[in-house]
Amino acid sequence: MGNYRADLLKDHANYDYFYLELFASTTWEWRELRNIRLSSYVYPVSDEAIISGCVVYFLLSNYDILRFDISRQISSSRQRFLHIELMGTVVDSANKEESKSVLSEKKPKVVFVLGGPGSGKGTQCANIVEHFGYTHLSAGDLLRAEIKSGSKNGTMIQNMISEGIIVPSEVTIKLLEKAIMENENDKFLIDGFPRNEENRAAFESVTGIIPEFVLFFDCSEEEMEKRLLGRNQGRVDDNIETIRKRFKVFVDSSLAVIEYYNSKGKVKKIDAGKPVGEVFEAVKAAFAPAK
Ligand SMILES: Nc1ncnc2c1ncn2[C@@H]1O[C@H](COP(=O)(O)OP(=O)(O)O)[C@@H](O)[C@H]1O
Ligand SMILES: Nc1ccn([C@@H]2O[C@H](COP(=O)(O)OP(=O)(O)O)[C@@H](O)[C@H]2O)c(=O)n1
Questions:
Q1: Binding of ATP: at which residues (predicted)?
Q2: d(CA 112, CA 107)
């Protein structure tokens, strides 16, 4: 059981600050815990905590469990520290092993399609399917279908999409694996995944799949915002407040994935700010066999 504050100090990445309100039924007082600092890579999965005595447990998006011991709040004259510990990770190891063997037998060819929200990933994937015979798997569509199916993860996924937060990898990877296994095709466009380093590393280790290449749709926020506000598909996250959060998540978490694949020479960057037809000309060139 590591000390979470110590972990955070080692990590110089971005932090997000959370606010917690607790009702002390003995004193009938609300206690406010401000500025709970978590690395931006993780988020509380839901606002439901498990409480036992003076200890509050939260499940985080990377399946770590965060433990707050309210009775061990340390005060100094200027600052108040909260005693926070990381409790270890929830891992579905049996399932991981099973899926690895199944997918590694199939050995599908995979192209990741990445880019900011509204950069035109879905639009161009439809064109690629028609011209190059791939099957399109949109991570966002699979998650939305999971909500509709009434799955036990539905509420958690719904909350995270409404906030523009990235759903834990285990959930998304299972949906992708299932979709790949259920389809006879062996060529897949995976759109909107991996969206952070956790997504990327977990997908590689669970499935053993390395993408052929990564198509990156590069587009200005101004243009993406205009497109999302005009998309009109009734999506809960296509409102200005959530759009801004999604842009932040893209810059803070998703760009790192593109940089990783760029360092491996796998990124094909497309200027996605142009009209649909022009973007598709560039996409076609990216799929053409190298001469
Ligand atoms: N090149 C483009 N120029 C103008 N509008 C576009 C272009 N590509 C897509 N769109 C529109 O922008 C919106 C977002 O596109 P979409 O393909 O759904 O993006 P993403 O899958 O990256 O979120 C849609 O309404 C789509 O019709
Ligand atoms: N790999 C992924 C893909 C999407 N998502 C969630 O689904 C939302 C919508 O993703 P999307 O790919 O359908 O849409 P865009 O944001 O690209 O327009 C994201 O904001 C995330 O909340 C996720 O958690 N993990």
A1: 118-123, 231, 274
A2: 15
Helices (H), ranges, the chain: 4-10, 93-106, 121-132, 139-148, 154-163, 169-182, 197-207, 221-229, 240-249, 255-263, 276-287
Task: Provide the ipTM.
Answer: 0.99
> Which is higher by pLDDT, 115 or 93?
115
Distances (CA, A) of 40 to 16, 62, 130, 160, 258: 5, 11, 38, 14, 18
Q: Which atom of ligand 1 is nearest to the CA of 124?
A: 17
| CA–CA–CA angle 120, 206, 42 (5° rounding) | 65
109's CB contacts (< 8 A; 6+ apart) are 186, 187, 188, 212
Q: State the residue for tokens 């020479």.
A: 265
